[in-house]
Amino acid sequence: MTLLPILLALDVEGDRKLVERLQRRDPQALAELYERYGRLVYSLILRMVRDTGVAEDLVQETFLRVWNRAQSLDAEKGSVGAWLVAVARNRAIDYQRSTTGRARNTLELETAEHPALFSDMEKDLLASDKARRVKAAMEKLSANQRQVIELAYFEGLSQTEMADRMGQPLGTVKTWVRAALKVLRHELGAAVPA
Amino acid sequence: MNCDQLREHYELYAIGLAEDPERSEIREHLDRGCEVCMAELKLARELASILGATAPLAEPSAKLRRRILASAGVEPRRLGWWAPFWAVAAICAIFAAAFFNSREKDLGRELARAQEQVRGQTIELTRLNEAFAILSGPDTTEASFGGAQPQPPKGKVFVNPTQGVLLMASNLPPARTGKIYEMWIIPKKGMPMPAGLFQSAMEGTALYVRRGAVDLNATGAVAVTLENAGGAPQPTSTPIIVAAIPSRG
Q1: Nearest to A89 among B52, B72, B196 (CB)
Q2: Is A3–B54 a contact, with Cβ atoms under 8 angstroms apart?
Q3: Domain A129-190, architecture per CATH
Q4: What pLDDT digit, counting tens, does each position of A165-179 carry?
Q5: In this structure, CATH architecture of domain B141-244
Q6: Is A107 on the interface with B (CB under 8 A)?
Q7: Residues A56, B67: C-beta atoms closer than 8 Å
Q8: What is the DSSP letter of B175?
Q9: Please, are residues B9 and B18 in contact by the beta-carbon 8 Å criterion?
Q10: Rounded to an integer, what distance in angstroms lies between the CA atom of residue B186 and that of residue B182?
Q11: What is the residue extent of each domain of chain B?
Q12: Which of A125, A149, A153 sits opposite B46 (nearest CB)?
């Protein structure tokens, strides 16, 4: 995984001003938001839906949602990048569920991407020391631990579904998930804020 | 359960893996404003956000940016087929002006304006190309709407099983501030599926393309509702456009 280009692309200082301009409905701000986060959002959604056409549609929806709801984000303390990631993931999960016949809980998705939830986060979260540490820790997980995190995060599978997919007992899968999250949580907590 | 017992479940909750009874317990703590749970969940949400940035890098097509700006109503231009020629002419004119005018400031402004013009034309051309691909598809199905209404909108919907849906409407006034139009693909069985947000032009026309495969045999209708800005996961108002898709075969 090459993360450096993404980190370099995130103009940390500019995020606050960018959110303020989005809130003023400055059309150029939407273009800049896309320049800054478009590749990251597209990469995430494509990893989840594995279809370039669908991914582009969902990226479009993601940016439109953020464009139309920017008023609710705290420009001083909010992380527009973290919010975009949440909206993007929810769009992709909703799509995955609609195509696989799994139950769609749209209310839960709506709640999970409310801008207020990202208003107490570092505005430069995705480029922070925390992020670098967590990403490095992700690389160090065992293959099984990394697989369950990826199945859960990118494919939206429950622990039971993961057990079926991997042909492993549910208890084993739960153990891998907890161990992986414990490692990642430790790195997140241990990181020195950038 | 107390907060300590929930400690190992915040990350599971944040990435959608929590199960009952812990999931319900966390919700209950959050609903009553439990500060411990709110702080823990903030960290868990941060972790979830960072995980999103670990996807392998991929490059979107160059036209995606133009689609996004166009669908947000940014740089909406209505241009004819001759638009590219005007663009070339505009750029030539600017370079000619630059040749005779040494003022760099003026040149910069002119160039910016020309670039803006070219960008707007390119957005429009991209959208028209997508629309044309649907219109010209041999297996495209067509449906009209609004014909019997005294107060339109009126128009047509074209559905192609591989290319997507094209909606063309007239007499559709721009959605007022804080509102937006949302298109829905309504299956014969099941809930409406959101098919994107769009805004109409000042003159009340709309041309909206939703790319992606559509199962024509399972689709009963295409509809449009007026929703709050940002759209809705399910329709929250009576559809203002309903185009029934004719059964095949």
Answers
A1: B52
A2: yes
A3: Orthogonal Bundle (1.10)
A4: 999 999 999 999 999
A5: Sandwich (2.60)
A6: yes
A7: yes
A8: P
A9: yes
A10: 12
A11: 3-52, 62-134, 141-244
A12: A125
